[in-house]
Amino acid sequence: MPNINDYLGALKLLQPEIFLVAAILFCALWDLFFPSLKRFTPIVCIFALLFAGAGLWGQFVIGSTTLFGGLFVVDKLTVLFGSLACAVGAIVVCMSTGYASRLGRNAGEFYMLLLVATLAVVFLAGTTDLIMLFVGLETLSLSCVLLSGALKSDRKSNEAALKYLVSTAATTATLLYGLSFLYGLTSSTYYGDIHNRMLELAHSPSLVVVFLLVLVLSAVGFKLSAVPFHMWAPDVFEGAPTPVTAFLSIGSKAGGLVVAIRLLSTALGPAAGDWSFIVGLLAIASMIFGNLIALAQPSFKRMLAYSSIAHVGYILIGLTSNSLNGLAAINFYVVVYGLMNLGAFAGAILFTNETGSDRIDDYAGLFRKRPWLALGISICLINLAGLPIPPAGFFAKAFVFWSGIEASSVLGWTLVAVALATSVPAIYYYMRVVIKMVAREPSDVVKQLGPGRHHLADPQWGPAAALCVCVAGIIAGSAAVNPIMNVAQEAASALQPTLLSRPGS
Amino acid sequence: MHLPTLTNVLFAWSPMIVLAPFIAAIVIILFARFNRTLSMLLSVGAVAYCFLHSCAILNVLYNQPLLNPASINWDWFNSQSFHLSMGVMIDHLAAVMLLVVTTISLFVQIYSHGYMREDPGYARFFAYLSLFTGSMLGLVVSTNLFESYFFWELVGVMSYLLIGFWWHKRTAAEAALKAFIVNRIGDFGFLIGILFFLSSTFGFWVNHPILMFSDPQGFDLVGAIRWGYSHGTLTELTLTGISICMLLGPIAKSAQLPLHVWLADAMEGPTPISALIHAATMVAAGVYLIARAYPIWLTPSQTLDSAGLAVIAWVGGITAFVAATIALTQFDIKRILAWSTVSQLGYMFCGLGTGAYTAGIFHLFNHAFFKAMLFLCSGAIIHALHHCYAHDSQLQKRLNEVSLSDRLIPPDQDLRNMGGLWKYMPITGSCFLVGCLSISGIPGLSGFFSKDDIISSAFRYTGGGHELLSALLIITAGLTSFYMFRTFFMAFFGQYRGKEEPHKEKISVMNLPLIALAVPSIISGYLGANPQWLPQLCGISAPTTLPNLFGQFLHWGPTAQFESANLQIMWISIAFAAGGILLAYMAYVKNFAVNSWCADKFKPFYTLSWKKWYFDEIYLWICQKLVLRLFRSLWNLIDMTLVDNCVNLSCFATLGSGELLRYSENGRAQWYALVIFGSVATLALLYFFIRP
How far out from the chain centre does Cα A137 lie? Predict the structure, then answer.
């Protein structure tokens, strides 16, 4: 029987999460009582997120600990994704300070929702129970819906929120349907029990198993915006406030991804042969559609949105291999990709704030007027393209592709071949922006830019700091490939016992 | 081995030798670029620290030789199959090279303070100098080929930036581009070679840092070659292929035939740069790399009779000769020195290629000092003459706008506008004389010792054609002394032929480095000499190989080898050198019409030399008529048919899907939900029926 001491011990491990909850309450109430001091909200948010992240990171050394009778587990994977979510949240808050003027009176609740979404990702990272999974996903989805609609007077933002709501409702339905099948088959909601039951069922595959896998994957694919569950992504990405887009493209994806990793490779591990094929199909479709459609986008934000679909395709390669190296490669990819993508979005906010434009053609000649901004965006884009300057992005891609090759299956080879082929248009559309910024004559919009000397009170300061942090992170990541990879491997090996017990293949 | 504390500290802090210049450069770029004095002090301070540290390391190694290199390694990336590391390795070869690089860099930076004083880009110049010094030192202390390649590219980039330092001058911008492109060709071969080597010895490096130059447990290049040979992944033929691919890198960087065309044009950069990068250090990096990764060019069983070494020897010999012939007829003082650099680098190649490892490195060592000094002398002359032409704005405008292919010689660099300069600048003149005597191989000065070792080893060369090879080098020695003294006499003797009187020189920050570098130019040769040599010189019998200080230091340990000089060959080459000086004296001081007679009688040869053997013209023709034309048609094919259609298709698909969505305008969100449900059903059914 669990006693009160277990409960208190669990609460001790949940301190970072509790701290975040306190910060959420603070954000919700502070603006109400002290409207004149509302400029402190984002600063408090950033510190809260950093403290929570640091607290989580401090738990990296402890081994796996299961809490609350199997609802939640604190292991290295939880810690990695949780602290990643906190870091992403902090950077997004930083970016939002440059955007807050457009949010009007609602800035406080905007930050609160952002914290709720971050908290949801942290919980999703450690969830080991279907109920917990469902609650976490719904919290994440609903706060993201609200965040997308944060620009209340903007029609596009409203449209984005509504579309996201309808789509998310549809996938909630499919997910619940899938989970009820799962419960019906295994009569448990705990991953460990499901795993054992699935082992018994692995010998007699049926349409029901296939169906439940597809249903669960549809929800995961929706969060990851993998093709064909991506339809919402471009519209929402375009309509939502840019910081929210940045969060959706990495924060909420990290949540979906960690759910996928944990659910698929532990609970559904015995059915790996089945789901890896379906995931492979999603990966191929995502890589092809994401890259090809991103090729023809005139808007920078939309281009990043479509390309993030393509990146999900690359990430899923690591998942299909269902090996330690594959999962480690995914972890590495998510960390590095998060930095590059957030940096690119921060650059887009800086540019749009100054020029009011988001067209790629308008970025031409930016290097002449804002050399540091152009340099920062270029580094992010070059890394997104997977070119080795500096080599963080290149390594991330190489590791994932390598894990696909190591799987030495027809599926693995096909995936890597498709990935390599679709990397070519990716290099083209990313480098097109870089070349435009550096080599072309300035566009009309850029010509009108005045001399840029920002001071600390400037709203541009927040996004600029975010961009600097991201670029510094990319450079540091390129130098410290080995330590990051070690962390990624340790996080992946938190799941290893169940991977090893996978029978039959 | 238990080292004393001070030694440990010296080795533990050796990464600072590489980092200090980089830190200085970053501080200058970020904070100090608006303060000229501060940026100069930072840059000079950093390199002075490097110099002192290198001297201390050299001293330690001299007193207490290292059997295994002292290395510090950091993992950059580590997995079971692939272990990439970066680090710092100090051994005897690296210590010698560290001394060369830091000494030259220190004096050149002090000199630059005077030379660039009035330039608006003064702080930027020092930032670049620091960056270059750091990259070059990084290349010197690299622990593995991969790291070498990294710094190799970095020095290439810095060379590009510094050649094009005066980018507003069209010739400078074009020369920088030319240097970069030619070096890219070489670096591409180098990279292919490295990757090819890595892939054929991949199994060897499991769990060990890849491509290490030296490792106490034997997981280094030699071990890899042995392993590959015994496992059949490497044969004599593939190793030769790899070594020749990799050789392209040193060939381009050290400006050897056929990739030598960039170095003369690189003289468009500021003169201190020519002295530091394009005479003493970066161009010698090619030679250094060959010495560093020497096992790759040997046979699989590590003997000297390999095809790779033969290629090095012949490339070096032919380059030495060709470059010397080109230098005979040029009038631009910096370009003459550039061609002589190419020629001397050819000697070093030939030395390494014929197995005279010590002599090749020794020549690099000596050459660095006297050639840097010669360049700094030419810079002093240019500086003194510059004011005579500076106010001719029309001329300056033309100089700025003319392209590289029909470049005109700047009048302050043109030998025809000099003459009688000894009267105005005696210090520069005497230093230049020392340099000329040294490079000509006159006994007693540094060039003599190393050059004759190389010529003798070429004569001993067993790979075939040793008479031709040594004859080429001996003739080159004669040509060298002729064109060097031609330059000296035309510049410093006779009547001044320029427009206005040059300034008289004063003791300044620009003379001191000259004098300081003149000292090693005279005496550094004695490091490679042995007193017992003297009787041998006089014809009394003595053992043919004698140990010497330099060789002993370089090859500390049981493998020490000393190259000996061949007496007959030595006398012949001295005679050739003296003949060259005499001829130059006759032609340019006594004004016998030797040169005009030659120019008339041997018109085709004269034109061949003047036009630099038409290499530029041939390359341009190949590029424009063959490569570009082929590329253009290929590009048209790919771009028009493939890429355009792909882009059109994706546009069409986007537009199409947009149309489709617009079709259900009022129900878009529902449509999304429908797609989700539809995809679930389709995927499930699809998978269920095609499941393996």
Answer: 13
Residue in B564, B523, B534, B535 with CA at minimum distance from that of residue B547:
B564
pLDDT at B448 over 90: no
Sole residue written with tokens 């550094």: B524
The answer to the question of residue A101 being in a domain is yes
Q: Could you tell me the sign of the dihedral formed by the alpha carbons of A33, A155, A243, A359, in that order?
A: negative
- Give pLDDT tens digits for B149-158: 999 999 998 8
Provide the residue ranges of all domains of chain B, joining segments of one domain with +.
309-353+365-371+383-389+412-530+548-610, 617-690
Q: Are A162 and B646 an interchain contact pair (Cβ–Cβ within 8 Å)?
A: no
Q: Dump the DSSP string for B495-550.
A: ---SSSPPPPP-S-TTHHHHHHHHHHHHHGGGGG--TTHHHHHTT----S----HH
Interface of A with B in 114-173 (CB under 8 A): 162-163, 166-167, 169-171
Interchain CB distance below 8 Å, A485 and B78 = yes
Range of weakest confidence among A314-328, B201-215, B331-345: B201-215
pTM, two decimals, is: 0.77
Cβ pair A292:B653 closer than 8 A: yes
Q: Is the dihedral of CA B508, B511, B517, B522 positive or negative?
A: negative
Report CB contact under 8 Å: B669, A425: no
Contacts of A277 in chain B (CB under 8 A): 687, 691-692
B418: which DSSP letter? -
Q: Within a domain: residue A182?
A: yes
Share of chain A above pLDDT 90, in %: 25
The contacts of residue B630 (CB under 8 Å, 6+ apart) are none
Q: Domain containing A176: what range?
A: 4-499
pLDDT digit string, tens, across residues A167-204: 899 999 999 999 998 898 888 888 888 888 888 877 76
Buried b (16+ CB within 10 A) or exposed e, A455-479: eeeeebebbbbbbebbbebbeebbb
A505 belongs to a structural domain: no
Interface test with chain A among B672, B686, B689, by most A beta carbons within 10 Å = B672
Note the ipTM here. 0.82
For every residue of B370-391, DSSP letters joined together read HHHHHHHHHHHHHHHHHHHHHT
Token pair recorded at residue A8: 């208190």
C-alpha closest to that of B86 among B4, B142, B30, B44: B142
pLDDT tens digits along B483-541:
999 999 988 888 888 777 777 877 788 888 888 888 888 888 888 776 666 656 555 44
Q: Does A210 touch chain B (CB under 8 A)?
A: yes
Region for residue B86 given its phi and psi (left: phi exceeds 0; alpha: psi -120 to 50; beta: otherwise):
beta
A and B: number of Cβ contacts within 8 A: 84
Which of B75, B647, B688 lies at the smallest CB-CB distance from A207?
A: B688
User: How many other C-beta atoms lie within 10 A of the C-beta of residue A451?
Assistant: 5
**Chain B, window 74-113: residues with a beta carbon less than 8 angstroms from a chain A beta carbon:** 75-79
Distance set, CA B317 to CA A415, B312, B313, B417 (Å): 52, 9, 6, 33
B364 by Cβ neighbours in 10 Å (0-12 / 13-18 / 19+) ranks as buried
Determine what percent of chain B is predicted with pLDDT higher than 70. Answer: 92
Nearest CA to CA, how far is A247 from chain B (Å)?
A: 22
Q: How far B253 CA sits from the closest chain A CA (Å)?
A: 23
Does some domain include residue A504?
no
Contacts of A229 in chain B (CB under 8 A): 676, 679
Predicted local distance difference test score (pLDDT) of residue B659: 60
- Touching B: A residues 171-200, CB under 8 Å: 171, 174
- Out of A222, A281, A293, the one facing B650 most closely (by C-beta) is A293
Burial of A359 (0-12, 13-18, 19+ CB in 10 A): middle
**Minimal CA separation from A45 to chain B, in Å:** 31
